[in-house]
Amino acid sequence: MRLLFLQDFLDLIFPRNCPQCGRALFDFEPCLCTVCQGTLPVANFHLRPFDNELTSKIRGLMPVHRAMAFLRFTKKGKSQKLLHQLKYRHMPEIGVEMGRLFGQSLDKEGFRSEWDVIVPVPLHPLKQKRRGFNQSEEFAKGLAKSLDISMNSLLDRRKFTETQTKKSRLQRLENVEEVFELKKGEAIQGLRILLVDDVITTGATLCACANVLLDCGAKHVDLATIAAGGQ
């Protein structure tokens, strides 16, 4: 009773608003309002996870298994606004919420038993300290909770790389060469891994991480992101 009163008091002083439309959130809405949840640009790549435009994009960069994204990325669209708020407005709860919602969709399609562990793409420690969190890890937390699968940050980023935003496909591949490594003491032999990131454009970062996991003995690595963007 006291906790409910305290929460009501905090909501009165510091009201929770939907990051998309600005409306006040109800108690049952953890991050996005119900209306905005219903209007998200859902991609549905998980309905054809072995054969879609994402698997075509990464073919040749890694042994292709499943590749999926929750949302379609469009400039100045809803997905871009959410990603910008997540990364640059210090709103890690958006990453958790995207993972929760996508996890529910995956669960409905029977994916719950397809993976042994969910692994986020790591940030360099300096960048994570500056941001305060790893957006991919927040997404992984939401997925892990919805799917009841453990989340483990198995990878280290050993080099500080320049931003990928304005680089060509080839430059992106070169930029992440030999950047990632399995954390010392971790054993992943035979594991089925879901590797997650915030967005996939060329796929260079995700594939670099996936190849490290495969080289270290993972059975297969599937890819999932909050959003999928163009080249």
From TrEMBL:
Phosphoribosyltransferase domain segment(s): 93-230
Protein name: ComF family protein
Family membership noted in the UniProt record: Belongs to the ComF/GntX family.
Top-rank taxon, per record: Bacteria
InterPro entries (UniProt xref): ComF/GntX_DNA_util-trans, PRTase-like, PRTase_dom
